[in-house]
Amino acid sequence: MKDREEQSSVAAHYRVGWARTWLHLLWILALYAVVSALALMWGGAGAHMLGSFAFVVIYLFWFLRRTRRQTLQNMDGVRRLAAGEYAAAAAIFEDLCHRALHPVLHWVFVHNRASAYLVMGQFDEALGLFHSALNASE
Fold first, then answer.
1. What does each of the 138 residues of the chain score in pLDDT, given as a tens digit?
2. Is 135 helix (H, G, I), strand (E, B) or coil?
3. How far apart are CA 126 and CA 118, in angstroms?
């Protein structure tokens, strides 16, 4: 049976990851609604289709670019971790945890952050983060 502190840590990380995803999706839907309304007002169905296609292409370009940037920052943190710069690596991973675009990336960043805390000797923080990353699906 999990104690209360472990349960709250897991629940908090789970809520943060999914709340960020839902907020992201709500922004996408709101922007899509604005683009659709403007296209229908100004040019009818043809403009709506063109505007929708442009919106999807621009969004995918932005999402992939931002995800790639976060992945490169994660790799920089892993390099710093391997070089022995544990505090700098932990700071990079903590920043990435707060800005992850996708829950899967969020859990990778949480795991890497826990690894940095582990090698720094902060076992309680590392254990809580590892536990929340391992039980993300619960």
1. 445 554 454 455 555 555 566 666 777 777 777 777 777 777 776 666 777 777 777 888 888 888 889 989 999 999 999 999 999 999 999 999 888 877 788 888 998 999 999 999 999 888 888 888 777 654
2. coil
3. 5
